[in-house]
Amino acid sequence: MKYFRDSKNEVSALRADGSQDSYIKPDMVLMSAAEVEVHINPPLTAAQIIEQHNAPILAQMDALDIKRIRPIAEGDTAYLATLNSKILALRATLK
Hints:
Elements: E1 2-5, E2 11-14, E3 29-30, H1 33-40, H2 46-67, H3 69-74, H4 77-92
Helix pairs in contact: 2-4
């Protein structure tokens, strides 16, 4: 495929064999391989990077929250304190 960007920043993909070259307009510019790569696989946004970082941490925190139910019910304050400190440590690593 050949990729072109026009003056409105819209991208068109045409067959590499030239059979669709009649669709190329004067304002269309052939995109470089690097431009095509970024267009097809855009970089992650800041929010997506943060989500990728936080997701496994939040999952660990949820698992620890579930483990806190028994110590609360049984009054096991020592184990509960251990779980709470683990949750606080994980919370500190969130972005």
